[in-house]
Structures
1.
Amino acid sequence: MPHHLFKCSQCIPEREKHAVIKGPGEDLSHALPLGYLSTIPGSISERGCAYCGAKHVIGTPMKDVIHLSHGPIGCTYDTWQTKRYISDNDNFQLKYTYATDMKEKHIIFGAEKLLKQNILEAFKAFPDMKRMTLYQTCASALIGDDISAIAQEVMDELPDVDIFVCNSPGFAGPSQSGGHHKINIAWINQKVGTVEPKITSDYVINYVGEYNIQGDQEVMHDYFKRMGIQVLSTFTGNGSYDDLRAMHHAHLNVLECARSAEYICNELRQRYGIPRLDIDGFGFEALSASLRKVGLFFGIEDRAQAIIDEETARWKPELDWYKERLKGKKVCLWPGGSKLWHWAHVIHAEFGVDVVSVYTKFGHQGDMEKGIARCEVGALAIDDPNELETLEALEMLRPDIIFTGKRPGEVAKKVRVPYLNAHAYHNGPWKGYEGWVRFARDIYNGIYSPIHKLALLDISKDAIPTDKGFVTRAMLSDADLSDEVRSSTTLRQYTGKYDSLSDLRGKTYPRFERRPAKVA
Amino acid sequence: MDDLTKDRIEELVDYIMKHCLWQFHSRTWDRKDQNVGVLTKTRQLLCKERVELETPADRCYWADAVCLVEAFRHNYPWLEKMDKTETAALINGLHERLDFLTITGSLNLELTDQHY
């Protein structure tokens, strides 16, 4: 597994240790990219900061909270319509964003008075909201504003409110991952154990590292509820502030994104003895195994199996329709962190695509271990790439599509590579059985969109064919299929609704006979 | 160790790497506990021995082990033809190899980081 130095990075030779190519017969002991280090000067990173990782990734998905940034207004911009962690309370946390709007004069004279005034104004403007998260930023941290003291002053004056303080300014780590760590530890230190919940089931879990991107959390909740499991809290997508204060009462922590939330699971394991079960909510086989493991833990695996059988029968023919048309397509899997390993194997196994590259913006070496172990020989693994490296990789690998964030995604479009938004999705949710088919449909639509045929023509030099009419996706995707596949009566395209969530929100669930958990 | 056993261990390792997550916790001590917890119960299930389920952590390891054993039996039919002694030796070999790849031979510099 030799390291790989991009031509464009020859002037930054340290970059060589951040990329490797998985060679035949090689394993994780041969080479591993460096990770979770400060970006090398001269390399223009695509990373976010530690404040962004704490607030925009983990804090803000909490739905019943005023999320206030103490700093310049620009720090909080990312909230407005650029994230898609929706909620079932009319997206309060997405619709309203708050900043204290620090100016230069506050840098000189301090901004604690400004902060207190903002907190009081926010609670007055939204009298139904009694919970707040408060975020330090670089500007307020550098001048030493004591935001914890101000939060306590307000809580003393307004006894019905509760405020969580997150001290993770932008410079507090090499990337957003530093902020993930800080907010995990701050939450368990400040808030876990401060609310006693109502327990309604014999089987109680925290669902951790799940951010309800386009409804993922609601899809998974549906499965858990169908098994008779009480989801005490979700950390943090569509999660409730007070539910998350009661995490210490769960029997099991079910962990999805270990990159962003393993810290709180590990602390809950050490402090309260609650075990941590890592799962994959993406892909039929992985999701089925995950539901089965949760069922086994509680002794209700029969309920998990019933869901697996029903959902697989409903959606597998649609998954296979897309698989037949996606086989052999080359994919660059370039997400932020955890999806590099959640997806590296399962998209190859269940969509038939070939992962030619994985990268991570802010992952640690542990994420690369998982990702490289799961992808096939020949894949190029890159840590913290810069824009020139991604362009060089696209030129070298010639992928049919990339899954990445919107910034590198727009760059890819300029070199005529279609992209899907790996962070916020295109037409999600992508978790769950139906969600996985929706993902396959998005890939299909991305790769076979006729616009790419037109976009590949350069009108300054290419001859423009005038003897051919417009083509459709089906004409492109079905050209080389066998008659058997093309005329199959079992395979079919996605038949779900445009909105796959609304029905879940009004759903009622069966009451199960009490069967005490087999938890020791 | 003969070549056939080595090949079989590599097949099992490949399955674990592509389908499981329990072997990749973030610190050396944690990976040791995970590998012991899941693979001990895997061996006990395959060898039809008594499996201890005394604590919540035991049940968690056991849930992972049950799914692993089902997958092993489904994907590797040669496993059913092995007797208990051979099976136990195979899983011990698997344990050694997994410890090497995830702990002693791992190039992950964070494994021994004192700050979690």
Note: Chain A has a mean pLDDT of 94.
2.
Amino acid sequence: MAKTYQRPQALSEEHTHYCPGCTHGVIHRLIAEVIDELGIRGRTVGIAPVGCAVLAYNYFTFDFQEAAHGRAPAMATGIKRVRPDLIVFTYQGDGDLASIGMGEIIHAANRGEKFTTIFVNNAVYGMTGGQMAPTTMPNQRTTTSPLGRDVGQCGMPIKMAELLSSLMTPGYITRQTVIRPKYIVKAKKAIRAAFTYQMENRCFSFVELVSTCPTNWGMTPLEAVKWAEEVMLPYYRLGDFKTPV
Amino acid sequence: MRRNGGKALSQKVLMKGNEAIGEAAIRAGCLNYFAYPITPQSEIAEYLSRRMPEVGGVFLQGESEVAVSYMMFGAAACGARIFTTSSSPGISLMSEGISYIAGAQCPAVFVNIMRGGPGLGGILPSQADYFQATKGGGHGDYRLLVMAPASVQEAVEMVMQAFPLAEKYRNPVMILGDGLIGQMMEPVQFPDHLKTEPSNKDDWATNGMDTRKSTKRNLVKTLYLDPDALNQHNLTLKAKYDRMKQQEVRYRPYNLDSEYRVLIVSYGTMSRVCRTAIDNLKEEGFEAGMIRPQTLFPFPEKAIDEAASKPSCKRVFSIEMSMGQMVEDVERSVRGKRPVLFYGKCGGEVPTPEEIMDVVRSGNHSA
């Protein structure tokens, strides 16, 4: 009998350290499937962020670098400039990318660096213990906004996909989610498109993925999915914001 | 002078320090340069923005010194020979990345054309980043191999030596020059192009498994959550720095054959003024000797200790364009055998030979 489903070669056999209900595992698998399908494992370099996914390199089977907080796009720039033949992606959370790494991501996108960013937006700092992020929703309680995010003090959540789409340099900017199977299929298509654009040396590509963090949201995995759908998705609209001409 | 012609540069040419430093990197086989403009070294970026395209190299102006240090990290981690240049406030911003590069054991070459500080300070020559360069700068237990040129010619030679050293130790090397080294024009003769390539990079570099025809993936990282593993990692780094101390100490003696009464320790531009002062004092019948460290880390402790121990030597002076930084290493080297005094100035005004003659003769000092 033929195997119809198996572990992608790009994914290692390590058990992940992620919490129950966390979406990192799904996203890792999608990336690994795409890398296998495109046959690029031998020339791919991933860049892990600071945050829960700092250990992402344990779960993949190709070359990896580990960045400092927010600096992954600068590292990816360095690699692509000296080795344009390598396929490079950064894997970043919302604290990493939208707060401390805002400068690096905007300038890399604006230069049109030919790498791919997978941006996991779960509206909270994960590994440091659930602090408020630039993407935290209005009134959302976190360990540093115990009364809920006060938009009068902290402003409104930053919509990274929209912000990057305002740049004039061509790029592929999309927002998807992995909170239900019907969305996962689309998310994989987007990840595949992002890597394909890079392989064609066409543009910077950015896939934002609305995700859940049951642990730091103080919810069960099912409640978290419901909250993401009801609170995050109306604000973080899904779809393509920019596609290369 | 033809700036860009390889032929013209094989002879002695008159060249500004900053441009010569840029050319030296190309001759060292470094075709990747990331940088952010800052006075007094922006001419290096301007020069290389013209030169790199001519030699098929990479020139990229980053959005900040922070970003540049990570462009360096990413590129170094895939085995490329890389280079950046900056000046004091910019080096502070790069220090975060330098800590990561040192922790991840990647080769990289940084040039600091020092200006006065703290903060924005000024744009004139200074040696006030000695502590930053030799004692850390960024966080964690790491060291840079630090070389201090005293002329444009020496800056060129040190830049060309820096790349093989960075690769030998898989560690960042810093060329610590002051604004004068960058800004002045001097005759310079370029050595032949460097032929060496990093030999062992396939063992560690994230250059793609296909590139090295391997099924084993490489990982470049600095996180060690296990205390034993982190301790072991730091011991590995320390062993490397100890090897540097044994193998890479460089210095130049001056007038040490004489029966000198004062031993001067001085580096970079400051040491040239001291040399003039020593020559003038000799004509007056006052003998002073000098050790000029060419490497600031590792520091020529033994040579200074020996020179200070000469019976004729009554005291030791550390003369710097700072408020007294290297003097701590000089004290450490002399180990109390002789009084160690300090003379220095900050702000960009270089002490004159007459000032140095006065303090050396009288033993007066400002520290």
Note: The mean pLDDT of chain A is 97.
